Amino acid sequence: MANSGGILSLEFKKKAESKSFSSAIFEPDRLRLYGCFILGICMFRAIALISSFDNLLDTDNSPAGYDFITFWSAGYLGILGTPEAAFVRERIVEIQQLAVPGNQSVFLWHYPPTFMLLSTALAGIPYLASYFLFIGSSFLFYVYSLRRLFDHPYALLLIIAYPAVYLTMVHGQNSLLSTGLLACAIFYFRSNPLLAGVFIGLLAFKPQLGVLIPLVLIVSQQWRVFFSAALTTSLFIGLSCVVFGWELWSVFFQNMSVVKSVMSQGLLLSEKMPSLYITLRMVGFSDEISYLLHWTMAVGVVGVLLWTWYRCGPTDMAFAALISAALLILPYLFDYEMTLLSIPLALLALDMAQKGGALWEKFILVCGFVTPLILAGIGQNFDIQIGFPVIFALFFLSVLRTNLIMGRQNTV
Question: What pLDDT is recorded for position 3?
């Protein structure tokens, strides 16, 4: 008995030390230090990038704002009354060189007419001013939306310091807008379902990010949110048809084959694309096998997600699983879209703060936070993609904690 007691005492001591170590890593002062350190790195990189520009061109003769030049140029063609020309390589390149003379890079347009509405409005002012207006307003909306959702003393610093935010701003992308809309939808989901549906419907400007939302709303019987989102989406699409004509939607769907062709030929920056399809391509799998394994994984993820929502409904962990799954199922995915992970990362962190979490769970959170900063560098130097395993780990952790909560409730 004495020996048994000694063993139990030793095990308890080890667990206590592990818990103390885990708590020390995530204590408030250290969280502030982590946030400031990562934010400092992002700011240093931003200053270095800005200092390299000459006449709005970087050392590779690519334009300041990068992807934003696609948005502005497509909008400019919309103002000219030829929105369908945005899908024509020669025409959009011509406008891109008008926006930034000397630009040698090619940025193609793959967006639906719903986003063309916003792009047309942005093209009404000069390129650089339009870029700062779009990124600045998107950033403020992102910060406002997530700050309302996460009322925590260090939330603001960590929300701003998340490296994917830096990537989105540098690339001139729209992920801050997508994330803000999702955060607002979650915030109003219970208190104002109709308004939550409106925010979900506005995601129709980037429909691939919201493809799973109707499914989880149906299985969890969230009908007011579902019909509000459906109505908003319909009105959004209808408005685009009134402004540009329904033919532009036909051109958009035809352009999807171009996207698939570009991916299959390996013409994109694989080191910046954290999808399973790209991960497999980088290690030597064929195009056909990579797609087969990717879609097999996607079917499994969707099945687990729908079962989770059917059992649990719209819980915080269910939302975390939904957003992670929305990224996992996409073969065409860039690192700046990991901005959306700021929501599941924060939801998981708050859940662990309230209910506790193992050291390995917190390690996943740290990886999720840091990965956007190092993903491209590791991919470029070692020809491996670390983004997909991290996103999958966040999905797994969200589902696991959801089921643990349900298990506790059933036990009680």
Answer: 45
Give the residue among 375, 384, 333 at the shortest CA–CA distance from 166: 375
Q: How many CB atoms lie within 10 A of CB 65?
A: 26
Contact 300, 392 (CB under 8 A): no
Distance CA 350, CA 154 (A): 11
188-220 pLDDT per residue, tens: 999 999 999 999 999 999 999 999 999 999 999
Q: Can you name the residues that pair with 57 across neighbouring β-strands?
A: 54, 63
- Chain-centre distance of CA 88, in angstroms? 27
pTM of the model: 0.90
71 DSSP 8-state letter: H
- SS3 string, 210-276, reads HCCHHHHHHHCCCHHHHHHHHHHHHHHHHHHHHHHCCHHHHHHHHCHHHHHHHHHCCCCCHHHCCCH
Q: How far apart are CA 117 and CA 119, in angstroms?
A: 6
User: What are the tokens at 228?
Assistant: 């509000």
Which amino acid is residue 28, in one-letter code? P
Work out the burial of residue 32: count CB atoms within 10 Å of its CB; fewer than 13 is exposed, 13-18 middle, 19 or more buried. middle
Local structure of 80: helix, strand or coil: coil
- Residue for token pair 């904690």: 401
